[in-house]
Design a protein that fits this description.
The chain is an alpha/beta fold. 41% of the residues lie in helices and 16% in strands. Bound molecules: 3-[O-phosphonopyridoxyl]--amino-benzoic acid. The site of 3-[O-phosphonopyridoxyl]--amino-benzoic acid has 17 residues, from α6. Keywords: Aminotransferase, Pyridoxal phosphate, Transferase.
Length: 464
């Protein structure tokens, strides 16, 4: 196969990138010394870089390319839509066919009475919508004091000022004046790192009951909503103990608290159902969606809103919206993506083939001396690296030192497997085959072996 690399040498492109391109979540000074890896094309589950390396993308881009790369149908639909109606807005009492059709399709797929869609350009924007919508909802119901949104530490809900405030990433809150007022964070259900001597199920209950404690402390008349990812993604694929979500649901039902499920990663097949809320048995009032909605082929996000909440919001002008809310090209692409997910029974492939196979191989990684726990739900998994499994010990080095070494080994072995602190995470395209999963595991194991050798050589196998 002829591999098309680039019209310019890698070094020249890297120099231009370093000179002009500010990367997100990156120490750009450091990167410009090193040079960014340049991805030139992709097909199926594989990326090609400017040096011609074929890389297995076990992160599906940034958790989003659910149907895999290279689906020409989406390109066709985008081109057709651009010719027909490249842009029109959905303000001022207008609409267009792609937005209508996509909203109707999402309403059909979403569970319960989640029948109403407010479009955004991304997950961050959608969560900003949610902040304003839930507060406005309570104001319209005559309870304007219900403005506090409870979220969790180490949650990720986006990077705008609002959504970044909802998120519980301390590194983000430390920069740029976040969080905004009336956001409250409780602890996460991360048993491996924080469960101490408790059995996981007891720990799950204890962490869920922090929600109740927070509601009672703040006052029920102050709390508007609780927001959480069914399974925390960017926080390190933290799968909660089974006891956690039923207790959260009970608490939200007991008090007058709206439940927002952030489905940006879990949605559109990632957990084996259309929504993570179905897999984890959650009944949200609002869902945040993005990423897998278009498999990342076009930027689009949104909020799926219950009939109850939508009917209250409909009683007033909601002074909120984005130029690209329901963008026709993005909406048409998303609709085609949903067609492919549905008609090719990709969720069936996840449930019956890919997820069971991956689970078996993934959990076997705990045989490796570096791997403490392995957790996986559908097609999102994590392993905790540790110097001492029995003690569930953290490394003596700064969190992320070991994870970074492992990630560098993965990159060198043509595998995109990320690290969050000292956890390694995967979220491959849903269409990955068992043969490709074998390659993934083979490269991951080789990388773990090399990482282990490097830790030994550098005397980094010490416990905190
Ligand atoms: N909610 C969740 C659960 C997410 O994972 C967002 C909201 C925000 O979506 P946008 O489209 O505004 O990025 C996300 C995004 C990482 C990483 O390092 C994860 C995300 C974004 C960037 C980096 O894993 N998730």
């Amino acid at each position: 196969m002829t591999v098309i690399t680039n019209h310019m040498p890698t070094a020249e492109l890297q120099a231009l990138d370093a000179a002009h391109h500010m990367h997100p979540f990156t120490a750009n000074g450091e990167l410009s010394q090193k040079g960014a890896r340049i991805i030139t094309r992709a097909d199926g589950v594989h990326l090609t870089d400017s040096e011609g390396h074929q890389i297995l993308d076990a992160m599906a881009g940034l958790w989003c390319v659910n149907i895999g790369y290279g689906r020409g149908e989406l390109a066709e639909v985008a081109a057709r839509q651009m010719r027909e109606l490249p842009y029109y807005n959905t303000f001022f009492q207008t609409t267009h066919v792609p937005a209508i059709a996509l909203a109707a399709k999402i309403a059909e797929l979403a569970p319960g009475d989640l029948n109403n869609v407010f479009f955004a350009g991304s997950g961050s924007e959608a969560n900003d919508t949610n902040i304003r919508m839930v507060r406005h909802y309570w104001a319209l119901k005559g309870k304007p004091s219900k403005s506090v949104i409870i979220s969790r530490k180490n949650a990720y809900h986006g990077s705008s000022v609002g959504s970044g405030s909802l998120g519980g990433m301390s590194g983000m809150h430390a920069q740029g004046g976040m969080p905004i007022p009336d956001i409250h964070h409780i602890n996460q259900p991360n048993w491996w790192a924080e469960g101490g001597d408790m059995p996981p199920e007891d720990f799950g209950l204890q962490r869920a009951r922090e929600l109740e404690e927070a509601i009672l402390e703040l006052g029920e008349d102050r709390v508007a909503a609780f927001i959480a990812e069914p399974v925390q993604g960017a926080g390190g694929v933290i799968v909660p103990p089974d006891s956690y979500w039923p207790e959260i649901q009970r608490i939200c039902d007991k008090y007058e608290i709206l439940l927002i499920a952030d489905e940006v990663i879990c949605g559109f097949g990632r957990t084996g159902n259309w929504f993570g809320s179905e897999t984890l048995n959650i009944r949200p009032d609002i869902m945040t969606i993005a990423k897998g909605l278009s498999s990342g082929y076009a930027p689009i996000g949104g909020s799926i809103v219950s009939d109850e909440v939508a009917s209250v919001i409909a009683g007033d002008e909601f002074n909120h919206g984005y130029t690209y809310s329901g963008h026709p090209v993005a909406a048409a692409v998303a609709l085609e993506n949903l067609r492919i997910l549905e008609e090719e029974n990709i969720l069936g492939h996840v449930r019956d083939v890919a997820a069971p196979y991956l689970k078996q191989k993934w959990e076997a990684l705990t045989d490796h001396p570096l791997v403490g726990e392995a957790r996986i739900v559908g097609m999102m998994g994590s392993i905790a690296l540790t110097p001492n499994k029995e003690a569930r010990a953290a490394f003596a080095s700064d969190a992320g030192t070991v994870g970074y070494i492992c990630r560098e080994r993965c990159f060198a072995n043509n595998l995109v497997m990320r690290h969050v602190g000292d956890r390694m995470i995967i979220s491959p395209p849903l269409v990955i085959t068992p043969e490709q999963i074998d390659v993934l595991i083979e490269r991951a194991t080789k990388s773990l072996d090399e990482c282990y050798a490097e830790l030994k050589a550098q005397d980094l196998l010490r416990s905190a």
